[in-house]
Amino acid sequence: MLSSTPLNVSFRREIVRERLKEWLELVSLVLTVNLNNDRDKFIWQIKNNGVFSTQSLYREIMKTESVSSKEVF
């Protein structure tokens, strides 16, 4: 399916306006993915070392929350 151009995908309803734009953006992201038979490796992009920690998650959430609360007021 990913090798066909355009993607061989059909929808029950027509995709228009903002949804069409979002779909095309998603397709452009998916088409750049190269699949292989290597083992999967999970990388936590929030930290430089790529390792997940609850502390890094908490800090990221708090950073987002502080921006959101400023926008509300």
What is the H/E string? HH
**Integer average pLDDT:** 81
Q: Would you report the number of β strands?
A: 0
Helix content: 40-55%
Task: Determine the N-to-C terminus distance.
Answer: 47 Å
- Count every helix, treating DSSP H or I runs of 4 or more residues as helices: 2
How many domains comprise the coordinates? 2
Radius of gyration: 19 Å
Question: How many strands, which pairing sense, and closed or not: the largest β-sheet?
Answer: none
Low-confidence stretches: none
What does this molecule look like?
By secondary structure, the protein is mostly helical. It folds into two domains: 1-35, no CATH class; 38-73, no CATH class. The protein contains two helices and no strands. The longest helix has 19 residues, at 54-72. The chain is flat, with a radius of gyration of 19 Å. The N and C termini lie far apart (47 Å). The model has no long low-confidence stretch (mean pLDDT 81).
Write the layout of secondary structure elements.
Layout: H1 17-31, H2 54-72
List keywords for this structure.
2 helices, single chain, 2 domains, flat, 73 residues, mainly alpha
Task: Give a concise summary.
By secondary structure, this protein is mostly helical.
